[in-house]
Structures are given as structure tokens and as C-alpha cells.
Amino acid sequence: MNIIFGVDIGGTDIKLGMFQEDGQLLSRWQISTRVMNNGQLIFDDIAKEIRQKMNEQSVSRSSVLGIGCGIPGPVDNQSFVRKCVNLGITNIYPEQEITKRMGGMSVQIGNDANVAALGEMWKGSAQGKRNILLVTLGTGVGSGIIIDGKIVNGLHGLAGEIGHFTIDPEETEKCTCGGTGHLNQIASVFGVLHYAKRFLQEDSAYSVLREKKDFNCIDLTDAARKGDAIALKTLNYCMGCLAKGLAVTAHVIDPDIFLIGGGMAKAGQLLIDIIEEHYLSNLYLMPERTEIKLAALGNDAGIYGAAKMILDRKGD
Amino acid sequence: MNIIFGVDIGGTDIKLGMFQEDGQLLSRWQISTRVMNNGQLIFDDIAKEIRQKMNEQSVSRSSVLGIGCGIPGPVDNQSFVRKCVNLGITNIYPEQEITKRMGGMSVQIGNDANVAALGEMWKGSAQGKRNILLVTLGTGVGSGIIIDGKIVNGLHGLAGEIGHFTIDPEETEKCTCGGTGHLNQIASVFGVLHYAKRFLQEDSAYSVLREKKDFNCIDLTDAARKGDAIALKTLNYCMGCLAKGLAVTAHVIDPDIFLIGGGMAKAGQLLIDIIEEHYLSNLYLMPERTEIKLAALGNDAGIYGAAKMILDRKGD
Fold first, then answer.
1. Nearest beta carbon to residue B169 from set A82, A169, A252
2. Which uninterrupted H or E stretch holds B65?
3. B278 and B177 share a domain?
4. A116 and A9 share one domain
5. What is the pLDDT of residues A120-158, one digit of tens each?
6. Same domain for A150 and A68?
7. Which residues in chain B touch residue A177, judged by CB atoms under 8 angstroms apart?
8. Residues B101 and B222 in one domain
9. What are the phi and psi torsion angles at A220 (to 5°)?
10. Between chains, do B156 and A286 touch, taking CB under 8 Å as contact?
11. Strand pairing of A150-151 and A13-20?
12. Tens digit of pLDDT for each residue in B69-96?
């Protein structure tokens, strides 16, 4: 059976997967990301790792369909990366960089959130669906959009940036982008902890969170599950804002399913229950609620989706 | 050359066009919409009109590629129409209704706003583009979305319903859908006139509009062009809200171009200038402004797009 490599390039590490054409993951490993020289070391490392894996596993050059890569920044419809802050790269075609290091092997590049959505469609929570929005609640809020089975990049590679329009017009604190009241500030892991701390200051209600020197999202959602007032207030506010953002996007693309991934998704079904409750109150036209589910592949969604890009290209 | 029929079914009249395959409009006519019997008379009339035209123009059955139809309501991905209030139809497959009246001729159905967007891509303001949002400022605010050259319907046929999420959270008046502060109430022809009247009451500034017993959108935009304070305040508020809505959708689908059509578009370039000014103040991530243009085909966009659906199906 043919082989595909899926690569998920992050700011801290690079995840690599060797797949069979049918999606079976044969090998999975990761290396550190060496951010310097406009990404040259990243491309060198990826090429080196894949060659080495091919040698180790006796994979012939002719059996490799290609290498798919997810990148943590905007990728436009021409596969051009204008700027990717996390990798320290500007004005580059990563496809060309990798393909020339691999003797002309087929390479396909995509934005990491979009690629993860493709992975979930292929082997995760959205199997059988063709129109998906995956929102990732991690350090920030990103999202990947699939329409008619294909990644939507957008003219500037900014499709799916639902973290960056105003959801709470009363919020005055600034988002990293300069705007205010954005989901990126509110529904990310950072955002949720930030609001929990703010509510602990503003609200005198008893909370187990006050007893902790520091707490993370798991502590917060555990407390919410036990009925902790501040934890519940935080999740209701932050996930209420997310639900509002999902309702807005439903009025734009009306997807088959919403998937929730990223660090916050570790909170599990509680998170979905809260989002669903608020989502309904923001809908007027929809005859029924669109399904909202947890993403299934976790950190592996990126390598799965990256590999799938190669299959999709093959079928072009 | 082969022939295609494009039909735009509205609540008041049905527009029909006979096209050559290359998009040349050979004949254009319209009839009244007879809303009764779950649309049966509409389908009868369309079939009768097309047969008659074929006879008149000696068009052979074999040279007709098909009939495309735009409908003023949601059409889902299975071409099912659950409810179309303007035509008084529920739970029907209009494709089947027309095709059975035309001896099995190929028929394709779409939502009117989406179909108009396709028309503008084919022969209007968005030629050469593959990713489009056309917003129609008429009785209400509708929009049609094309991604990768194809209409986006959405699971419930509600993709492009950007008229129905909250843009002005301070507005307390209700939209027809039950929500508040929606573009449908604010940037439609009805909305703009409503706000002009409200501002005339609230604001004591001089305005030529006060002297008129009644005024329409052309009066209003003419006044704005001459610097009338209330007219300008109205357009700035209403088109400012539209710009905010476009900026939101840019963060979801990041289209190649925005087109503005419908009755309000008769205001011309002034409208675009105002929208562009406000659009910029709502963008944080975009490296450059997405093009915003007036739609070119006016009321004919629907028949053009309807015909194009048949060509696209042929190429499937």
C-alpha cells in the first residue's frame, strides 16, 4: 500500500506521521522546532526526518504519494505564506522549500486549523460530513473550515479567523490583534483563566478556586462540575460568547457540524452542554440546532489532515 | 449553439431568460407569480412559458441543456424546499415539479441570493473571481456565497443569511425573525428609511428630508450627496452596520470580493465609499482591504445565475 507523510509544524515542536493510504497511522514521532533563518532549519529537519524514516522502514521513493504540512499561520490559495510569526518565516512558499529538499516529491501546505478540520473529517468526529467548522480553543481561538469536502483558505489565508471579530462589545481590554471583545481573548484557555480570575475579584461568592495559588482549565471545569458558582459563571460567560460566535458563523456558512478542539476541549461534555444551551438562544432562522461535538483526534488531527491533503490532491 | 433557460421566481413576478450556452441573453420576459396550491400554478406557468418560447423561436428539445431556477427561500443541499413563505410552498422538490412538466428536462434549483451571486460571477461584477459574497439590500438583507466557484447552500439552506445575526446590540426593536439589531432591519431599503425617520425625530438638525411628505432611498442618497446632515447620519449608521457585518464574514470566509446589490445599490459609488470607510475600522488581521463593488446585473443577476447552474451541473 502507498505511504503518505503528514507533518504538523508548531511553534514549539513538529509532529510527524507516516500513514498508509487508507489512513492507518504506521508511525508517529516529533522533534523540536528550530525557529531561525526564515524557516530553513525547519524544512531541513522535516526532510531529514522523513528520509530517515523511509530508510528505517524500507519505504521506497515510488511508494510515497507525498508530504502534507500544516503551518500555524495564514496560507493563501497559492500556498504562499506572507508571514508566520510562530515559525519566524515571511514571504515563502513552504511547498517549494520541502519539495526541493525531497527530490521533487509532492508537497501540500495548509493552515494548521484548516488541516486539523480535514483530519477530523477523515478519521475523527466529522466522518461522513462535507461541511465542517472546527474551532480550536487553545492559546488562542482558531478555526478551520471545510466546505464541500475542501479546505477554505480565503483570499488572504484568513478564512476561519472567527477569533477576531467583536463578540462582546462591552469588553474594553485589547486582543493581541488590537481589537476588543474578540473570542480569542475570551474563549481560549488563556481567556477562560483570565475571566475566572477577574470574576474571583469582582464577585465575592465562595469558590474552591480561591483556595488555590494557581489553577488551570481542568481545575476550573472540575469545580464547575461540582457547582462552583465562579467556575460556572466563567464557563457560562466564555462559552456563551463562543456559542454566539458559532451562531454568527452558522448564518454565514451553515455547516453540517461544529467541532470543538484544543486544550479547553479536555473539559469534555460539560463544555458542549454549556455551548449548546447558549447557541440556541442566538438562533432565529434555523429550523433545528446544528450538531456540536468534541473533536476526536486531539493533537493528532494535524498529521491526519496533512496526510489527507495529499490524497485530495491526488484525486484532483 | 445550445440553449439554457434561467428563471428567477419572485413573490410578485417570475423573470425568465433564454440564453445561449456562452451566456448571450437571447430573450427576456416576465409574468406574474400566481401564489396558490403549494406552487403548482407557478410550476405550470413556468413550463407553459418555456414551451411557448421554444415554439416561437423554433428551439428544438435536444438543443436545450436545461432550466435553472432561483427561489426566494432556503434550498438545502438536496434541493429540498422546506418552506418558502413568499411563494406559499412547503416541503417540495421544485426540480421534480418542473422536470416532470417538461418531459424529464434537466432542472436545477437554488436560493435566489446564491443564484444572483453566481450570475455576477459569470457575467457581472465578479468575473474571474471564484470566492464571492453578494449582499442584496432590498426589502430585507440577503446574501449569496460562492466558494471555489460553487454556491454554498448550507445544511439548512441558510448559508449567507448575514441579515440575521446581531450587529447593533443596543437596538431593541425586533427583526421579522424575532432577533434584535440585525442587518435585515438596518441596511435594507426599509431599514434605511426607518432610521432616517427616526433620526429626523431625534435630531433637530436641518434636513431637506423634513420638507418632503414622504421620501425614498434615492431622495435620501441625493440629500447625502449634497451634505444633508440627517441623510449622512443615516447612511453612516446603516452602512456602518453593513460594513461591520461584512468584516465579520471576512473573518469567516475571507472572499475575493464583496458585491453590493439590491434597491439600495442604486445609490451608486457613494454607498461603496461609505461602506469601505467603515469596513476598514473593523479589520485587524487583514493585510489589505478586500474589494467592495456594486453588482452589475441588477434584476437580471437571477436569470443569469440560474442559467449558469445548468452549465455547472453539465460540467460535474
1. A169
2. strand B64-71
3. yes
4. yes
5. 999 999 999 999 999 999 988 999 999 999 999 999 989
6. no
7. 284-285
8. no
9. -65, -45
10. yes
11. unpaired
12. 999 988 988 899 988 888 889 999 999 9
